Every structure is written in C-alpha cells, then in structure tokens.
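U., I forgot to send this yesterday:
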Amino acid sequence: MTFQLLRIDYTKLCSPAVRSRLFCLYFMSNIHERNRLHSLCIYMRYVMFVIWAFSFEEAFSQEENAKNIPPAIAKREGPQSTQSVGARELSKAFRSAAERALPCVVMVFAKKPNKDDKLEQIETLDFLEGEPGKDYNIGSGVILSADGLIVTNHHVVADSKRVRIRLPDGREFPATDIRSDAPSDLAVLRIESTKPLPFVEVAESSGLSVGDWVLAIGSPFAIEQTVSAGIISGKARSLPGLVNGQLLQTDAAINPGNSGGALVNLDGQLVGINTAIASSSGSYQGVGFAIPSNRVQWVTSELTSFGKVRRATMGITVAPLPEEIADQLDLPIRGGVIVVRMRSGQAAEKAGLQKGDVIVKLGDQVVRSPADLASIVEQLPIDQPQPVAILRETKEIELTINLLEKTTQ
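Result:
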C-alpha cells in the first residue's frame, strides 16, 4: 500500500528513464531472497534521493522560467505584473510630455466687437458662471518661438477689438500684429516679453499613426492648463465648410476653450492645433479634430512672411475614381482621382492634362481622393515645376506642372 501511494504520487514527477531504473533495481533485489530486505532499503534510499533531486530541479526550473515568462502570462502574475509596470511607464510618459508642453500653452482672451474697449483682468472661474465670458471669446494658443510668436485659431480672435494673452505663470500681455486665415482656421500674433519665452518643439504630423497616444492641452471652459489624454482616432478627416484641409481626429477630451490649444505626442512635441469637435451637446463626446502640425507650419510661415496664405491651384475639377474605371486600370477605388473638368489657360491645361485622366501622384505624394489632391496642391510652391503621374487609357504618363497662385473670386 505504501509503495502504491509513492508510485501514484511520483510517477507523475519522475521521468520514464528514472522509473525504469527504479523498476530494475527492485527486480534485481528479488533475485536473491536473502538480500530482499537489504535491497528494499537500497531502493527506498534511491527513491528519496530522486525525490530530493526532483525538488531541487523543480525549484531551479521555476526560477529560470520566471525570467522568460511570456507577457501574456505575466499580466496574470500579481500586483508586480508587466501590466502594472506598463501602466506606470505610460503614466511617466504622460507626465514628461505634459511637463514639456504646458509652459508653452497660453490662454487667449479676445474682446468681442461692439463692447467696451477696456479689456479688464478676467477671473477664469467667473466665466463658468457666464460672467464676463459673454463679452469675450476665450481660447488657447501655443508659443512657437522665444520672441513671442503664438499660434491660435482664427475663430478665437476673428473680428476681435482687442486680444490679450495670459501665460502659465500669470503674466499678461496685449497681442500685437494679429494675422489670420479663415479657410485654415489659424491665426498668428505676437507678444512682447523682456525675457525669452518657452516654446514648443514641432514634430512631423505625417509620422503619426492611428492608435498613437496624444495629449490635448488648453483651457476648456476657461480652466487653465488642463491636460487630457487620448489617441489618434483617424487621419485625413474633412470638415467641409468649416476648415480647409485634412485634419487629425482624436478622442482626447476637447471642449469650448480648447480651441487653439496644443495636441502633443508623448515627447511633448506639437503634432496639431485643436480646432473643432463633433457633438450634439456642444461639449466633448469623444470626437475631436486638430489641424496637423505640418499644415500649421505652412500656414504660420505664409502669414508671417506675406501677411496672407498664398494657395496654389491646378485649374481642374476632379472626382473620386469610379469603380468600373478603377477595375479597368487595376487600381483600388481610392487609388487616384479622375479629371472631370479643365479650366482654360490654367496650370493643368498648360501641363498637358486632359479630361478623363486619372491622377495618382503629385510631387512625391500619393493621391487617393479629391481631398488628398486639394490638400497637396494648395501647399506646394507656386510657379515651381512639380511632377504629376497620371494614367490615360491604361498608359502611365508623367507630366510636369507649374502651379499658379489661386486668386480670390
């Protein structure tokens, strides 16, 4: 009975080779009956030695396995799990990004038209109760240079009689040299400071991917220096009639007062300027939009250099690629745009484009939709040759086009 219990317990622990040795030892002990008791003692000693060796090996194996435990299993291993460590690391990344960007985000007070000219000091919490916010547009801005260049939204400062800027340290300055561009919903202004100002580092928004973490920083409901976290929910979004160009979509909380504030990556670098939300209530519902930093840099450069934004044009009207034509050309449906109208004397006609051509690439950028093409064209240099790749009746052709400046109608 005792032997059976040992066997039941330890056949699961011992390898087949060990069990074979144990059996042989026991069998050999039966050859000489007079030595049976002596053999049994040797057998039991052997069993105890195997048990001890197995216990040592098991403890050593557990220690080694713990070093190589897969992440999926490690998540279930208790309070010091990989999951909790990852959460702490993400928290550190949020904190580091916020510390870098917060000093560069300001509050913007824009005096509404037909009000008293005197722009008084405004207590931010009063605005939540409706006074004196009814006399002001309150938004956010981002410092772009140490000498006081600030970018914000056009709709924050549009038609304002006066604009005042409050820095994170509480200092306030009147804004000067305000230059604005309604189609892009961006504006730049300056403040005069005796000391160099902290300014944000700008990253390439083209490097963003859906799912990347971002922080939205601004003054929602006039509550200064507010940070919310989210991800890039989508790229190349359009808001026709509100903002020209393609936008970033994020689920980071954006509310009234965030307009003109910063959208930053986990390095604290600017990747967008918060501009709008999609909402049935007027407040955050998980869908916010930001102007990509690449576009922000182009618009601010145009405004500071020329006082306006010069936009290029091809002089054509395009439409999405019809499915039947895409099939004929062996292209995906969003693999280009088709020219449906030509304007006489414009850049496209001079370059040799024709109605029915399918544009697949302009410059070094792939064209997938009419919105793509519009965004690419308006930011390209004016009157400088650009390669344009087209398909004409299945034939690949590359032309050269000199874009012209778009005139205001």
